[in-house]
Design a protein that fits this description.
With 76 residues, the chain is mainly alpha-helical. The chain contains three helices and no strands. Helix 1 runs antiparallel to helix 2. The longest helix has 15 residues. The chain is elongated, with a radius of gyration of 17 Å.
């Protein structure tokens, strides 16, 4: 018998995850201004959406928003 290996369990905030419901929740909250982009990206990660790393995803979202309204990046 070998040496026992260390182990730990980590439970996600929503198990099992209804990805569609999480996405709708995130869209609703961000659109209404009651949730930050960073929190929303983390919720999507927890639901299984591939958005790694969160900070870079937030920058990409903000960049698209600035470009869509014609605002040069870094000047808002």
């Amino acid at each position: 018998m070998g040496k026992p290996l260390p182990a730990s369990l980590a439970w996600g905030p929503r198990t099992p995850t209804d990805r569609t419901a999480v996405l709708a929740d995130v869209v609703s909250r961000v659109s209404s201004g009651v949730m930050s982009l960073k929190t929303s990206v983390r919720m999507l990660q927890d639901a299984g959406y591939s958005t790694e790393p969160a900070a870079e995803e937030v920058v990409r979202i903000q960049r698209r928003a600035f470009e869509a309204c014609g605002t040069p990046r870094g000047r808002h």
